[in-house]
Amino acid sequence: MLGLKVHSADFVAFRRNATIGANTHLERNCLGLAFNSMELECYPMNKLGPLLDEYELSHKHPFNLAVHWVAEPLAIFALMALAGSLRLPIGSLLWPFLAIMLIYYGWLSIRIALAFLPVVAVFVLLISFIDNTLGIQAWKWAVPLFVACWFALLFGHKIEGRVPSVFQNPNLIFVGPVWLMRIIFRRFHFPDP
Questions:
Q1: Helical spans, DSSP H, in 16-61
Q2: Which of 19, 103, 131, 163 lies deepest, with the highest CB count within 10 Å?
């Protein structure tokens, strides 16, 4: 028997407990895929929700969560510092990097892009302070920081007992910080981004 929960006429994500099979009209309406003898749940079209749900599957263990709360933001901070240290004829690579990142986040959810603006501003100010005031070239500290963050994240996943989701779906590379932002949104009872 087919149990169908429909929240919208546009479908993008689903859960199934069956194998591919029959090809009925009702089943074709869910992503154009056909399933036989299963429970099918369709969700409204949303670019971000399915990515966050997929990412969350491999981030349940409390130790791994704690590692991600520290290492994810620091890895992005290190990437921003590295981008800022690379010079182009028109200036630093930091600004195109940030533009691409914020456009991607805006494409996923405008609320997420807006929520990241203050974080990005603080990171840019910290990078400028370290570079200008302390006189330490960014690549000298950003490369070891980025590598340390990756090792910490991999260790967190070893404790979790799951492969990092980014190895299974490279599209999730920038979803980690958004996933953390969703946790903050939920903590303050804001709707999901």
A1: 25-28, 48-56
A2: 131
Residues 7-53: tens digit of each pLDDT: 333 333 343 333 334 433 333 333 333 333 344 333 333 678 888 88
Report d(CA 111, CA 22) in Å as an integer.
40
Q: The pTM is what?
A: 0.72
The encoded tokens of residue 79 equal 């990437």
Place of tokens 């056909």: 34
- The C-alpha atoms of residue 30 and residue 16 are separated, in whole angstroms, by 11
Helix and strand tally (H, E) in the chain?
A: 8, 5
**pLDDT value for 48:** 81
Question: Distance between CA atoms of 147 and 153, rounded to whole angstroms?
Answer: 10
- 180 in Cβ contact with 69 (< 8 Å): yes
Type and span of the H or E element at 100: helix 94-108
Compute the 3-state secondary structure of the chain and give helix, strand, coil in percent, each to the nearest 5: 65, 10, 25
Burial letters for 55-89: b for 16+ Cβ neighbours within 10 Å, e otherwise?
beebbeeeebeebbeebbbbbbbbbbbbbbbeeee
Query: Rounded CA gap, 77 and 62, in Å?
Result: 23
Q: Are 32 and 127 in contact (CB under 8 A)?
A: no
